[in-house]
Write a structure and sequence with these properties.
single chain; alpha+beta; 14-stranded mixed beta sheet; 14 helices; globular
C-alpha cells in the first residue's frame, strides 16, 4: 500500500501529525523548479460572492485563507506540529494580566512588507481596527469580537485590551483576519477588490486571472520575510482545477507535483491501494466537519420538532459507509473528536436512528407529515462526493415516510451568499476550524455575528457559556461549559452535525515535506514542500 499515515497524538486532546510509517519526509533541497500544487478550490470575484475575495477583512473560507496564509503575515502562527500558536511577525506575545484581558506583542526588529516598507505597531493597529470597522458580510470580523481597544507604544509594541477574558485570543491572532496589511494598499473603510495581495508573509503572490476567477497563483519566496517559518522552496504554483478527476489526471501526467483538497473518495482509495507507484498518498487526522444548517425562521423547519425528527432519523454510520467509507467518521456534535471538550451530545439525546421516535416528536408537536423539504448543497466547494451524500440523506429521510425531500445543487459563488441571506431552509455546509479549539467550532455558529448569519440565538450560550469557557486558560477546565453548549445545540438543533473527515495529500515521490503540508485545521503550509530525489 503506497500510503503514509499520520496518527493522533495523545496529548491535551489536540491533533498533531506524527509520521507513523515510511520514514521521514523532510530534507527538501529548497531550490529547483517551482513546485506545482493542484486544488479544486475556486477563487471568484463576483457580485454575489463579493468582489474582494482575498482581502483579509473579507475572506472566510479555507481556500482563500490558504492563499492569505502564504502572503499576509500575522503576529502569531500555528506551529507545524500544531499546539499553541507561536510568535511570527511578533518577537514575543503574551497575556500581561492574570485575567486574560490584556495581551501584548512586541514586533520583530526590522520587520518589512514585501515592497520594503517598514512595519510598525501602527500598521498592526490599522489592520486589526480596519477589519473590525468594515464588518464584512462574510462575518470574519467576529473572530476579533472580544477586542475592546488596540493600543500602541512606540513602533514595536501592540497592546490588545479585551472586553472580557479570552484564553483563545492567541489563536485568533494567528488567523488571516488578523493579517498585517499596508495602509498604502488597503483603504481604511473599503475592501480591496480583485486578486491582489500585499503583505509580509513568506511569499509574494502573482496571479493569473480569467473571467474574474483566479486560475493560477504563483507564490515566490519573499526575501524580506522575517518570522518563525522555515522556507524549503523558492517558488510554488497553485493551479485551480474544475474537478477532482482533472486534478488527478494532471498529477498522473506529472503536470502538477502535489494534489490537495478535494480528492474524490475513489481517488483516495485507488491511490492508497496502489503499489510501486510514483505517487504517494499521505493521510492524516483532520478537523473538517460537515453539517446541515437550518434557517430556524423558515416555515418548514421553524418548529423545533421537525429538526429534532430529522436528527432522530438520519443514520450517520450508513451515510459515511456508503459515501466516504473509512475516509470519514460519524459526528454527534459540532465539536469533533480529538478536541478537548468534545461530547457526543446528539447521540446522548437521540441514540440510534429511530423512525418511531421521530414520528412521536412530530405528532406531539402537531406537525403534519410528510414534511416537504428541499436539501440544498454546493456543487463545487466540498468535493465531488457531496451530491452522493445528499442523495443518501434525502433517501434516508424519505424512507422514514415522515419527510418528502428533494435535493438541489448550486455553485459556491451563489450558494454561500444565498445561505447567509436566509434563502435556504435546509442546506449543507462544511467547516474547517479557524483554530484547533472547541471555541472555534461553537462561537462561529452560535455567537452574535455568526458565520451562518443564523437567526437562532440562545441567550444562555451567548451571554454566559461562551464567555465562561473563554475564561479558562486550561481548556480542560472549560469542558463543563462546552458540554452544556453542545447539549443545548442537540436539544434545539439549529444545526445537525453529520461527519468528521480525514485529510489527504497526494504527491509525486520526489516531493518532500508532505507530512506537514496541511495542519489539523486544513491550513496549507506551502513552505514545508521541497524537491528531493525520486524513487
Amino acid at each position: 500500500m503506497n500510503r503514509k499515515t499520520l496518527v493522533l497524538a495523545a496529548a491535551m486532546g489536540l491533533l498533531a501529525p506524527v509520521l507513523a510509517a515510511c520514514g521521514d519526509t523532510e530534507g527538501g533541497s529548497g531550490d529547483g523548479d517551482a513546485i506545482v500544487v493542484g486544488t479544486t478550490d475556486r477563487f471568484t470575484a463576483s457580485e454575489e460572492e463579493g468582489l474582494a475575495p482575498l482581502d483579509p477583512a473579507f475572506a472566510y473560507d479555507v481556500g482563500t485563507w490558504n492563499i492569505l496564509r502564504q502572503t499576509v503575515q500575522t503576529l502569531m502562527v500555528q506551529p507545524r506540529g500544531d499546539g499553541e500558536p507561536v510568535p511570527d511577525a511578533a518577537e514575543t506575545c503574551g497575556f500581561t494580566d492574570a485575567g486574560n484581558e490584556r495581551f501584548s506583542c512586541t514586533l520583530r526588529d526590522g520587520l518589512k512588507f514585501a515592497n520594503g516598507d517598514a512595519i510598525t505597531a501602527a500598521d498592526v493597529k490599522y489592520s486589526i481596527d480596519r477589519a473590525r470597522a468594515i464588518k464584512a458580510d462574510s462575518g470574519v470580523f467576529a473572530l476579533l469580537s472580544t477586542i475592546d481597544t488596540v493600543e500602541t507604544q512606540g513602533d514595536r509594541e501592540v497592546i490588545f485590551h479585551l472586553k472580557t477574558a479570552d484564553a483563545t485570543f492567541p489563536y485568533k491572532l494567528s488567523t488571516p483576519v488578523a493579517g498585517i496589511v499596508n495602509p498604502d494598499d488597503y483603504a481604511k473603510d473599503k475592501l480591496r477588490e480583485g486578486f491582489e495581495v500585499d503583505g509580509s508573509g513568506p511569499y509574494v503572490l502573482e496571479g493569473k486571472v480569467e473571467n474574474n476567477e483566479l486560475v493560477r497563483a504563483v507564490f515566490t519566496k519573499n526575501p524580506s520575510y522575517k518570522g518563525a517559518l522555515k522556507m524549503n522552496n523558492e517558488k510554488v504554483e497553485m493551479v485551480s482545477f474544475e474537478s477532482a478527476d482533472a486534478m488527478g489526471d494532471a498529477l498522473e501526467k506529472a503536470e502538477i507535483d502535489v494534489m490537495t483538497r478535494t480528492m474524490s473518495p475513489e481517488q483516495v482509495r485507488e491511490l492508497g491501494n496502489a503499489t510501486d507507484s510514483e505517487i504517494e498518498l499521505v493521510e492524516s487526522p483532520g478537523l473538517e466537519i460537515r453539517y446541515l444548517a437550518f434557517n430556524t425562521e423558515a416555515e418548514t423547519v421553524k418548529d423545533k420538532a421537525v429538526r429534532q425528527a430529522m436528527a432522530q432519523v438520519v443514520n450517520r454510520s450508513e451515510l459515511v459507509g456508503k459515501v466516504y467509507g473509512s475516509q470519514a467518521e460519524p459526528l454527534y456534535s459540532l465539536v469533533p473528536a480529538g478536541i478537548t471538550g468534545h461530547s457526543n451530545a446528539f447521540f446522548n439525546k437521540y441514540g440510534d436512528p429511530n423512525t418511531a421516535k421521530a414520528r412521536d416528536l412530530l405528532e406531539e408537536a402537531g406537525v403534519s407529515t410528510p414534511v416537504k423539504l428541499t436539501l440544498h448543497y454546493t456543487t463545487d466547494h466540498y468535493g465531488p462526493a457531496t451530491k452522493a451524500e445528499f442523495e443518501q440523506l434525502s433517501k434516508q429521510l424519505n424512507n422514514s415516510g415522515l419527510f418528502e425531500t428533494d435535493i438541489e445543487g448550486t455553485p459556491w459563488s451563489t450558494f454561500r451568499p444565498a445561505g447567509q441571506k436566509g434563502k435556504y431552509d435546509v442546506y449543507g455546509m462544511g467547516w474547517f476550524p479557524d483554530y484547533p479549539d472547541a471555541d472555534g467550532f461553537l462561537a462561529p455558529f452560535l455567537d452574535e455575528d455568526n458565520f451562518l448569519n443564523s437567526p437562532y440565538a440562545n441567550t444562555e450560550i451567548r451571554n454566559d457559556l461562551i464567555p465562561e469557557s473563554r475564561r479558562q486558560a486550561d481548556r480542560l477546565s472549560a469542558s463543563d461549559s462546552l458540554t452544556e453548549i453542545q447539549d443545548i445545540v442537540a436539544a434545539d438543533v439549529p444545526v445537525l452535525p453529520l461527519w468528521q473527515g480525514k485529510q489527504y495529500v497526494a504527491a509525486r515521490d520526489d516531493i518532500t515535506g508532505t507530512a506537514y503540508t496541511l495542519n489539523s485545521s486544513s491550513a496549507l503550509q506551502l513552505w514545508e514542500l521541497g524537491r528531493g530525489v525520486s524513487g
